[in-house]
Amino acid sequence: MAKYFPVIGLEIHCQLSTRTKMFCGCEIEVNTTANKHVCPVCLGMPGAMPVPNRKAVEYAIRLGLALNCEIDLNAMWTRKNYFYPDLPKGYQITQTGGLPVYDHPICKNGWIEVTLEDGTVKRIGITRIHMEEDAGKLVHDMSPTSSHFDANRCGTPLCEIVTEPDIRSPEEAVLALQKIKQILEYTQVSNANMENGNMRCDGNISLRASEDAPFGTRCEIKNLNSFTNLEKALYAEIMLQTVTLDAGREVEQCTKRFDPNANKTIVIRSKEDAHDYKYFPEPDMVRLVTSPEFVENIRKTLPELPDARRERFVNEYGVTAYDAQVLTIEREVSEWFDSAAKNCKTPKILANWVISELLREVKELEGGLAAVKITPEQLATLVNLIADNTISGKIAKQVFAEMFETGEDPEKIIKEKGLVQVTDVSAIEPIVREVIAANEKQFAEFKSGNNPKMKGFFVGQVMKKSGGKANPGLVNQILDKLAAE
Ligand SMILES: [Zn+2]
After folding, report:
1. Torsion sign across C-alpha atoms 315, 317, 322, 327
2. What separation in Å is there between the alpha carbon of 40 and the centre of ligand 1?
3. Cα of 128 to ligand 1 centre, how many Å?
4. Distance CA 477, CA 25 (A)
5. DSSP state of 358
6. How far from the centroid of its chain's Cα atoms is residue 48's Cα?
7. What's the CA-to-centroid distance between 55 and ligand 1, angstroms?
């Protein structure tokens, strides 16, 4: 099998989390009575006039700024003609298509950066972000003989983010999608939940014989709804195109879907081009004119973005680059850590607690981080109690488990259970002597200095006998003192 070089671009659709629809005042509500939120505009009744949702425009600009895009202050709406049974209008209002003169998406020429496995930072271009509206939904499982139509989703605002074909492997594609999802969450313009369909991704992929050869013919794989499926679908398509090219045949441009069970990409439509949709400027809409002040105001309220937050965690709290990376993957986790770290004397140790204790528990917890009973301040206090030797790290784990169950303050748990670390030499020494008396042979070995492991044995025994409460540092000191006697 010959080696080919993949060229990949992504198109990411995300649902904006506005309260109302793109061009009418109907509310957006999921899992409700079918056709509850409809009106002449979102049903496409003749004569009904669309009015753009200011909040949706604001969100699109916020996203564009976060993705380093230029904002078009004179964007344009176009009409994309479709026939879909779940699209009563027979068209979709969008910002793309046809002649370049019609092509004025709200954002263009941006970029993101991803960190590759070898540590290099790679920049991936964002060609454009355009706004459009979603279609409704067909419901097939209500009766065996008929399908039903629910228009609640008709007119829901979407943004489509299109990347440049800068991606060179399925792993890079996953990194790019992760970064975009992260930015969607940080800017809070979309819930970006792939399982709920708030966000879905199409992958365009072609192969070429060398890294500087012209691009090959591409296929588009539609509606990939998880990182795993994106990666698997791209690999499956690379395999298929490799076999095709090796056999001396040509790859045919087409639109595909991915079947995860068969691990195969399947053709759903052959070659389609922009002119198939008969785009034209939307006659019911004027241009989407925004002012530089409007854009500047949005820029001023942009939140701290993931890359900046990651760097700040390293600089401000001294956490490792790896820990900062883990702590900033999800906005909520990063905010939780941030408010805990502000109250903590040893943020670097706190980072370990959040990553290895808290997040491990959260994984198993229904409702995720939002359902956690411990407050950031309480965890900071617990870590502070280790720092000032009130409790040992081992006892702290016991206290943490109790806090996670009950949401009680660590001081209260420590007091009630009598878990305060014993830092009094006169209280520890008798325990050490007792352990030595019970293990004379081992103590002689320790004293001889021939078996360095023996010290660990004695520390372990003393800790056990003290119920984990003896200060390990002091146990070590006392052992050394008695061995020297
Ligand atoms: Zn409506």
Report:
1. negative
2. 6
3. 27
4. 73
5. I
6. 39
7. 16
13 - beta bridge partners?
A: 160, 200
Element (H, E) at 324: helix 321-328
* Cα(13)–Cα(403) distance, integer angstroms: 41
CA of 81 to the centre of ligand 1 (A): 19
Q: State the distance from the centre of ligand 1 to the C-alpha of 284, rounded, in angstroms.
A: 15
In the chain the domains, ranked by start, together with CATH numbers, are: 5-298 (no CATH), 304-417 (no CATH), 425-484 (1.10.10.410)
* Predicted model pTM: 0.85
CA of 160 to the centre of ligand 1 (A): 21
Contact indicator for 97, 276 with CB cutoff of 8 Å = no
Query: In 3D, which of 466, 395, 456 has the Cα closest to residue 433?
Result: 466
Per-residue pLDDT of the chain (485 residues), as tens digits, is 778 999 999 999 999 999 999 999 999 998 899 999 999 999 999 999 999 999 999 999 999 999 999 999 999 999 999 888 899 999 999 998 767 888 899 999 999 999 999 989 999 999 999 999 999 999 998 889 999 999 999 999 999 999 999 999 999 999 999 999 999 999 999 999 998 889 999 999 999 999 999 999 999 999 999 999 999 999 999 999 999 999 999 999 999 999 999 999 999 988 666 667 888 999 999 999 999 999 999 999 999 999 999 999 999 999 999 999 999 999 999 999 999 999 999 999 999 999 999 999 999 999 899 999 999 999 999 999 998 888 888 889 999 999 999 999 999 998 888 777 777 788 888 898 999 999 988 888 888 888 878 888 998 888 888 887 888 888 888 988 888 87
Report the separation in Å between the CA atom of 57 and the middle of ligand 1, taken as the mean of its atom positions: 17
Q: 41: CA distance to ligand 1 center in Å?
A: 5
Residue 66 alpha carbon to ligand 1 centre in Å: 29
- Contact by Cβ (8 Å): 142, 150: no
- Let me know: does 480 contact 449? Beta carbons within 8 Å: no
- How close is the Cα of 437 to the center of ligand 1, in Å? 84
Distance 56 CA to ligand 1 centre (A): 15
- 294 CB-near residues (< 8 Å, 6+ apart): 58, 61
How large is the angle between the packed helices 440-448 and 453-465, nearest 10 degrees?
A: 140
Q: What is the DSSP letter of 368?
A: G
Rounded distance from Cα 98 to ligand 1 centre (Å): 27
Q: Which two tokens stand for residue 247?
A: 């056999």
CA of 45 to the centre of ligand 1 (A): 10
Tokens of 337: 């850590």
